[in-house]
Amino acid sequence: MSHNTYGHLFRVTTWGESHGPAIGCVVDGCPPGIKLTEADIQPWLDRRKPGTSRFVTQRQEEDKVRILSGVFSDDRTEGQLTTGTPIALQIENTDQRSKDYSEIRDSYRPGHADFTYDMKYRIRDYRGGGRSSARETASRVAAGAIARLILGPAITIRAAVVQIGPHAINRDNWDWAEVENNPFWCPDAKAAGEWEEYLDAVRKAGSSCGAIIEVVAEGVPPGWGAPVYGKLESDIAAALMSINAVKGVEIGAGFGAAALSGEENADEMRATNDGVAFLSNNNGGVLGGISTGQPVVARMAVKPTSSMLTPRRTVTTMGENTEIRTKGRHDPCVGIRGAPVAEAMIAAVLADHRLRHQGQMGR
């Protein structure tokens, strides 16, 4: 299976399956001399891990990361530092229940990658989806932690769930501090309370719903990215679209820009003592594929979880019509745990573009 690597100078290759002994990644291109221990990575994994509330899968994984290579320390170094060689990270799987999937071994789950994997590879790991499982995203979050160290504290990346099912937040009530205070990564405390009631009903009905996640990167300097085929927003869109269950991505005003006039959409500029100031940010911090210095803003739409207790019509691997219901532990809204993953992918893209910019421009 190819295409398991993303990035150019900051390159990440993820490996492992949902019900295998472990998952992990290899991070290549990290500069030497950066302080790195498991403690720098673990907090980000803890934000993503399952079993944290009744609104996510109850699979109990500690998601403890182990650094296998790419770091060194002795009495001459100030702590454990990256060496510039590939950094291998491993996360053990400790709570697999493969028997939950035995009944769907010979049937394709609608909305999942079962059918397409079988058509392409003629073999598929039906235990939790194998390589197509959202379990793979833990490896991305681990790599994103390293990317954040490359970017440094001047750049902050935060994501929030702004819509669950048909219920969107009120922008007037937006408060980033609320994101860490509820299980939905919601910046609107009132909406979070309403979502709790809505998701309880979805969960009890054995159904699922989708979500929209917004991610904002602040402190990105102007000049990162490149025209035509190296556009910053192109790499952001590709990175977010590569996340499981994501079916749409927009930058800045996105699809809403189609309803604006040219006057409304143009981000006007004024000269200030601190340089150029933009009066709006409809372009999401990117113009011509290059960052403007404004916050980089992207949103991604996550489809409803395809694993449901409600019977769905499908076919077997032998081409026979049947019905299927997926047992086991599944997220009623997989988008809830997508916020830390979105942050990690944006961090990886920005780290890559920082290194590419330095390599081309020398600064």
Search tags:
7 helices; 5-stranded antiparallel sheet; 18 strands; 24% helix
Summarize the structure.
The protein has 363 residues and is an alpha+beta fold.
Describe it for me?
The protein is of the alpha+beta class and 363 residues long. It is built from seven helices and 18 strands. It has helices at residues 38-48, 114-121, 137-151, 189-204, 232-241, 262-265, 338-361; strands spanning 5-6, 11-16, 22-28, 65-67, 71-72, 81-82, 87-92, 156-164, 167-168, 211-218, 246-251, 269-272, 275-278, 286-287, 290-291, 296-302, 312-315, 321-324. Strands 1-2-3-7-4 form a five-stranded antiparallel sheet, covered by helices on one side. Strands 9-8-10-16-11 form a five-stranded antiparallel sheet. A two-stranded antiparallel ribbon has the order 5-6. A hairpin with a 2-residue loop joins strand 12 (269-272) and strand 13. The longest helix has 24 residues, at 338-361. The radius of gyration is 21 Å and the shape is globular. It starts with a strand and ends with a helix.
